Amino acid sequence: MSSDVDVQKPLLLLRPGRSGIVKVLIENQYAGKLLALGVLPDAVVKMVRKAPFGNVFYIKLDNHQLAIRAAEAESIIIEEII
Amino acid sequence: MIQHASQPIVALLGNPNSGKSSLFNFLTGLKQKVSNFPGVTVEKKIGKLQLENQTIKIIDFPGTYSVFPNSLDERIVIQSLLNPQDFNYPDLVVYVADATQLERHLLFAAQIRDLDIPMVFVLNMADLLEQNATKIDNQVISDFLNCDVLSVSVREGLNMDKIIEAIQDNLIHTSSENRKSLFRLDRVEEKVAHEVMEVIPCKNLYQAKLIAHHNGWIDFLSGDQKNKIDIIVKTNDFADLRGQIRETMSRFDTHVSILQKAVTGKVSGKVTLTEKIDSIVTHRILGPVIFFVVMLFVFQAIFSWAEYPMEWIEKGFAIGGSWTARILGDGWFSDLLVNGVLAGLGGIVVFVPQIAILFLLITILEESGYMSRVVFMFDAIMHKMGMNGRSVVSLISSGACAIPAIMATRTISDKKERLITILVSPLISCSARLPIYAVLIGFVVPDVRIGIFQAQGLAMMGLYMLGIVGVFLVSLILKFILKSESTSFLMMELPDYKTPLWGNVLMTVKKKVESFIVGAGKIIMMISVVLWFLASYGPGDNMENAEESGKELSMVNKWSEQETDNHIASLKLESSYIGIMGKWIEPAIRPLGYDWKMGIALLTSFAAREVFVGTMATIYSIGSESDEKTIREKMSAEVRPGTNEKVYDRATSLSLLIFYVFAMQCMSTLAIVRRETMSWKWPAIQFLFMGVMAYLGALLAYQLMS
């Protein structure tokens, strides 16, 4: 896994402005609600910005926006779009 | 279909931000009532709609994402939908979906459809589709959900009459044909569902599966039924969390193909107006600055706009009181009516302007979509203190008055976060503490300047800061003491910005004011009457003696009639039950530097902090007409018996100030906490810990200073 392509990582590690494709939701506790909010496998998600005091992230999906905490962003495994 | 004996019930259901409540306001107008679902503080909005031949009951349920609830609000909704015997079980669901967010909003609709509840599917915000050059083929969705589908715009008033027609039609022709479920249960789920149906009759397998899934918290099953279902779940290794995810994913898969057929011309990926606004409003530095300015405005508004109406209300009640007293003449009944009942009523109504203004502004911020940005920005800080991003709004509003602030915590869905916010909010210095600060601060800090600042102003700021420090400490402690019932999470939508609908805003304000008057009013009234009794009566012939000795003193000193009255009032207060109690608690408050006179004021100001000043006026026989300045002069002239030491020296005054920073001296707040937490336990705990903080703080201050 040396190349940048196909590297899966938590959404938490995506830099602001970058996008990724949702692969798996690894935390069952959060998965149900995330799905209901439209964080679905194969959906494109963009990391928009970090909250002023950290720990919370502003993300954008196809046509709506969400605020999620770091722990929640960590449970969303994505593949970065290079 | 279950026929409700009286009126058919139509439930409005849909995701949050679907425009459901606007539709509710449109359908029911002013004919609506807000109450709580039994045993919980989840708002239940009921209205009536007159159709051609019958009146129907419309319930606006809280916004819900799916049949797998994540909050108390959602649980209440699901519980009502799973139990056909439920008092709120609908005969017809009007499902409201945002046409621009159909992918997500279709989920809950499909689940309701599988529960076999008749439904009308309303595609709201159809006007926005045209703007985006998108088209939705209603027939495809109608075929899929097997129900009527309407395109409307509640905001623009588009096709609204069709909704009423559809309700009318669907209440008459309810097709209870056995429709095929949109979702296939797997083998285990099917087996579990069949076994559950032997414990409790269900409409179909899907309903039975959900009952098994939610067995842990639904309240309509008997203990025996719960045990049986529990065994079914365990023996079949029914993995509910995985099942939930499988169901949701499988439904979304189906919906993707349905929407491919139904929706044309959809463009995605362009930068929207909302994104542009958010790049400023939620900016790392600008965001908090803008928020601070907005809150400063809200705070100012509560303070200054409410000032005049509050004055009028106070004057109005004073005039009403003296008028009543004149008509009824002297006597206990007139006194009870004027100083007990009317004073209590005045004490309730006087809060209405502040509550109305705060909720007017908060609702505007909420409806426009700004409030969720506030949560986004401040959740990190508040989460550290066991609260939620939304708590910021309550804490800031507390600077004006804790009552509307505590009422505003309803938007916090996590129980623990909400409770902590409710418990710490009154520690923020409210406007009622100001008169006390104003009277006492002069005894502590001289009227000098330090650089460009006024020393007294700085001291005032220090008192406010002290309250904020109290919030930090107490919330941190509560965070560790209180146990959490569920994992805390944030995950929330940041809806697109939109102009608020004024009808909705005013309706919310009206409901908040009503719920305050009805909910807290009774308790405030009761305490007010009790306090009146304690201050107007004394044991034996105490009161007569007080009047007698007042008259004798008057003869000796040749007082004017007004002076005599003032002295009699003072002597009477001293001889009353509350006066005796004030003397009785003197040993307890002496270490704080207080005498029995202050003891009396502490007790009477439990009604409301500002009463402190009025009581001081009575005790020092100034009469009630006088202003703060005379009271201050009297107080500063007071010396300890037999000495030249001033009673209101620096130590005692500072001790009093600190006492009022922390003490829960407000029956109205306690009443609203009792209403919002549904028990006396929390207001009692709050009263105690704030009392302890006040006592220890004051003790420390006095002992260090004297």
Topology:
The complex is a heterodimer of chains A (82) and B (706).
Chain A: E1 8-10, E2 19-25, H1 28-36, E3 44-50, E4 56-60, E5 65-69, H2 70-74, E6 76-80
Antiparallel strand pairs in A: 1-6, 2-3, 2-6, 3-4, 4-5
Chain B: E1 9-13, H1 20-28, E2 32-36, E3 43-50, E4 55-60, H2 72-82, E5 92-98, H3 102-114, E6 119-124, H4 126-131, E7 135-136, H5 138-145, E8 148-151, H6 160-172, H7 187-199, H8 205-213, H9 223-235, H10 240-262, E9 263-264, H11 273-281, H12 286-305, H13 307-328, H14 332-349, H15 352-368, H16 370-384, H17 391-397, H18 402-407, H19 415-424, H20 434-444, E10 449-450, E11 453-454, H21 455-481, E12 492-494, H22 502-519, H23 521-536, H24 542-557, H25 561-575, H26 577-584, H27 586-589, H28 596-604, H29 611-619, H30 628-637, H31 650-662, H32 667-677, H33 681-705
Parallel strand pairs in B: 1-4, 1-5, 5-6, 6-8
Antiparallel strand pairs in B: 2-3, 3-4, 7-9, 10-11
Helix pairs in contact in B: 3-10, 5-10, 7-8, 7-9, 12-15, 13-14, 14-23, 15-22, 19-21, 20-30, 20-31, 21-31, 24-25, 25-26, 26-28, 28-29, 31-33, 32-33
Keywords:
heterodimer, A: 82 residues, alpha+beta, 39% strand, B: 706 residues, alpha/beta, 4 domains, seven-stranded mixed β-sheet, two-stranded antiparallel sheet
Account of the 3D structure:
- The complex is a heterodimer of chains A (82) and B (706).
- Chain A is of the alpha+beta class and 82 residues long.
- Chain A has one domain (8-80): Ferrous iron transport protein A (FeoA) (SH3 type barrels, Roll), CATH 2.30.30.90.
- Chain A has two helices and six strands.
- Chain A has helices at residues 28-36, 70-74, and strands spanning 8-10, 19-25, 44-50, 56-60, 65-69, 76-80.
- Chain A has a six-stranded antiparallel beta sheet with strand order 1-6-2-3-4-5.
- Chain B is of the alpha/beta class.
- Chain B has 33 helices and twelve strands.
- In chain B, a hairpin with a 4-residue loop joins strand 3 (43-50) and strand 4.
- The longest helix of chain B is centred in the middle third of the chain and has 27 residues, at 455-481.
- The interface between A and B is large, with 35 and 46 residues.
